């Protein structure tokens, strides 16, 4: 079984991912998909929970998947705060309300990509790995 497990694992890193999404079913689906791929997922249902997750964790977050519209945030202010709190994290902004201005503003603030909802769950992990790779040099942290 060891060879099967190692071949399934491939060379993909196991990432710590913060999923910030107020819609429970979407958050759960993303968390399940990424968890099954071997990643550690931290869930936040609003901006305040996201900020707490980033400030209270001893371990760095590799990638943040951030919903644009949350009960306590519906602009790019939270994205800017996340970039300040966790500058080494790749950020993917998810939105069903994207405009060219929102997309450009998010990219200007350092988001790796803006994903428009609905999206395919099987597209998440490759995008996650690209966002992680683009976020700069990484310290090797025990996983």
Summary?
By secondary structure, the protein is α/β, with parallel strands linked by helices. Helix content is 42%, strand content 17%.
What topology emerges from the helices and strands here?
Elements: H1 2-9, E1 16-20, H2 24-36, E2 40-44, H3 47-56, E3 63-67, H4 77-85, E4 90-95, H5 100-108, E5 113-116, H6 124-134
Parallel strand pairs: 1-2, 1-3, 3-4, 4-5
Helix pairs in contact: 3-4
The SSE order reads HEHEHEHEHEH
What structural category do the secondary elements indicate? alpha/beta
Oligomer: single chain
- What's the tally of helices? 6
Indicate the overall shape. Answer: globular
Please state the CA-atom Rg, rounded to the nearest Å. Answer: 15 Å
Q: Round the mean pLDDT to the nearest integer and report it.
A: 88
Q: How far is the first residue's CA from the last residue's CA?
A: 22 Å
Helix proportion:
40-55%
Notes on the structure:
- By secondary structure, the protein is an alpha/beta fold.
- It has a single domain (17-95, 102-134), classed as Response regulator (Rossmann fold, 3-Layer(aba) Sandwich).
- It contains 6 helices and 5 strands.
- A 5-stranded parallel beta sheet has the order 2-1-3-4-5, with helices on both faces.
- Helix 3 (47-56) packs parallel to helix 4 (77-85).
- The longest helix is centred in the N-terminal third of the chain and has 13 residues, at 24-36.
- The chain is globular, with a radius of gyration of 15 Å.
- Residues 1-9 and 139-143 have low confidence and may be disordered.
């Amino acid at each position: 079984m060891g060879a099967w497990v190692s071949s399934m694992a491939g060379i993909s890193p196991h990432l710590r991912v913060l999923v910030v999404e107020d819609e429970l079913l979407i958050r759960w689906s993303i968390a399940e998909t990424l968890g099954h791929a071997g990643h550690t997922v931290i869930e936040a249902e609003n901006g305040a929970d996201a900020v707490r997750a980033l400030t209270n964790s001893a371990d760095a977050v590799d990638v943040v998947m951030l919903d644009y519209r949350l009960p306590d945030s519906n602009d790019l202010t939270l994205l800017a705060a996340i970039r300040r709190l966790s500058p080494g994290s790749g950020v993917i902004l998810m939105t069903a309300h994207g405009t060219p201005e929102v997309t450009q503003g998010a990219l200007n603030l350092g988001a790796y990509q803006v994903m428009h909802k609905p999206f395919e769950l099987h597209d998440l992990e490759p995008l996650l790995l690209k966002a992680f790779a683009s976020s700069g040099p990484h310290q090797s942290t025990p996983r």
